Amino acid sequence: MLFNSIDFSVFLPIVFVLYWFITNNNLKLQNLLLVTVSYIFYGWWDWRFLSLILFSTIIDYLIGQRLNIETNQDKRKLLLSASIIVNLGFLGFFKYYNFFLDNFINAFSFFGFSINSNSLNIILPVGISFYTFQTLSYTIDVYKRNLKPTDDFIAFSAFVSFFPQLVAGPIERATNLLPQFYKKRVFNYNRAVDGLRQILWGLFKKIVIADGCAQFANEIFNNSVDYNGSTLFLGALFFAFQIYGDFSGYSDIAIGTSRLFGFSLKQNFAFPYFSRDIAEFWRRWHISLSTWFRDYLYIPLGGSRGGTWMKIRNTFIIFIVSGFWHGANWTFIVWGALNAIYFLPLLLANKNRSHLGTVAEGKYLPTSKEIMSMLGTFLLTVVAWVFFRAENITHAMSYLNEIFSLSFFQAPYFRDGTLALPTLGFLMLFLVIEWMGRENQYALEYFAFKTKRPIRIISYYLIIISIIWGAGRTGGDFIYFQF
Amino acid sequence: MKKFLFKYMIFILPIIGPILLLEMSVRNIPNDYRLKNEYMFSNSNSIETLILGNSHTYLGVNPTFIDSRSFNLAHNGETLEYNIKLFNKYKKNLQTLKVIVIPISYGSLFNTAIKKWIKNYNIYHNLKETDYLVDNLEVLNKNWIDLIEDNYLYYYLMKPSPYLKSNSLGWYEKMEDNVDDYNMVSKKAAKWHTADNFNQLPLNLDLLKEFFIECENRGIKIIIVTTPTHIAYRKELDKTQLSLTFSATSKLAKDFKNVSYHNFMDNTFFDESDFKDGDHLNAKGAEKFTLMLNKIINNNLN
After folding, report:
1. Co-location of A89 and A235 in the same domain
2. Which residue, A209, A365, A440, B203, is the most exposed by fewest CB within 10 angstroms?
3. Mind listing the pLDDT tens digit for each residue in A264-283?
């Protein structure tokens, strides 16, 4: 079920009423309701893959309990390995099997050996990369004794399958989300209103910004050979905002929906396009994944301790694995490696933590130096996004070649280009609102505290009208579903 | 909680209320999709010949001139995929069906469904293809000022429905006048129908093969037609795409016993006065074409 679907618009109010009016006096029943509706939510897409979630849930629940009572370190390691093998095994099979097979065959044929093997027609279960990482965080934390394992299977199942963030994150840590299933949730008016406001902003980002930009990004990327450098650059800009609006929009809807049910999820995007360097960008983009890799991969590998080569190695590993997490394609690996290359100079010069606060904090406008550094960082990410969006490496390289050619100085032109004007207008408005709200959890939160009631209400209505307008022009899947 | 729900309703009602009202009133105005859906539910158990397809058969085949009991289920811009989906939707009731006429036009084997028409199949034929809001609501697919005007004309001034062009047998009756400049419109139409790539061809052929097998099992004969076209249109067509269309369609007819192919594309029996534009017959042309088709249908029925 998609957040921007008619089914979800019926599903959510029904669940809300059942949750707060029917099951509110019984915590177990309320958690059971969440598990049931989460399975319905997921099964709406393909019920067959519910077995994967259920299997993963049972395995990690049992392993968590065994880890708690087991004192022998070797056996504990074995249990942790079992959890990792099961979860990454599912991920590896469904997501990477064909990639490895094809590359294996290509590598052999390069050396003159011919191998006959057919790729399997594998459907990638929606959200598998998200929920496997979420359950893994549980077993790893229990293994490290950072978390006490749960005895409550229903609460654990609800943690693994919690529908607002099941298919596209944020990837929640068991330490944050799981304890919330143990406590009775009390309806809080202000929190529910805040949740609705964040859902509204998420829908605006997805439907008006992301889907609006997608039309033109798709046209330009899919027909890139027909266009000059300036148009291709515009296409890359459209994609940069498409992916940001799409994914951060989803996160906003997920976090807002969770608030309606009395849950608090971690912020997943913190205005990444206002970052002053790549290190700051990665602290603000897909925070739940970046911190996951930091805590469960980068730090165990030694992190930034050790010598220069160790730092370089670990940086490349974390960025390449992060790229590969997004998809079984060399384009994602190059995207990750490119970000590592951007990041390394800052790390080696010990400048990767220069910008920990918000840009121009407490001010209306940034300084010219801040503008230049934000622009520079943004352009670096745009170049990297070309690899992320391209069909293959050759496509990405020819796309970038054209951007960096003299045709960049020609006027941009693309099919139905005039239709892009409203989208560009909304993009400008969006950037202004994001800038004003950059010190909040999400931009629209700014309006809740800094504007008068009539202006606030009118703004909400205008946003709703623009969402309806946007929904009539577009309508599509969330990009991160495919990951 | 009550305060939250009350305030939420008060907030959302001024937006959702008018939209729902507009949506309901638009859906209530008769349209071709609803008419055909209702006909298929109430009369499908007596249909002997079913016309599927796109605008080429929608305008070009008038069931009035067919001897057997026929109905034209074609819609504008309908792809082969949706032709088959509609057949599958109503096939349970089509117990007396003996012949299906399906067009394969110059663009048929290469195109995919047009986004803006999907809602018609979801809303009126209950196909429930996608659950995106845009694919399930009229108000998200049309200009609101036009919708309000259409409502005003239909409900207040009692004008005929602007969305209903079909007669009771599903043929496009309320035909517009013939165009003045056949060359110009043909050029546009040919460009529109020429595919960027041929990726869709194997998928469409697979769909057709599956459909033909099912029809064979049910004892239904298939008549594939390529409808007549104006010379101005034909000269604008891409030769590779055209020859692929003919060769793939002829092969299908050869491979399936219950399938025959009749290519009227450059039939000399039709002159300019038979065409509404470059690739669509007008009422006069439709009568001539349907009478020719009727003989083929009768041969298949005997």
Report:
1. no
2. A365
3. 999 999 999 999 999 999 99
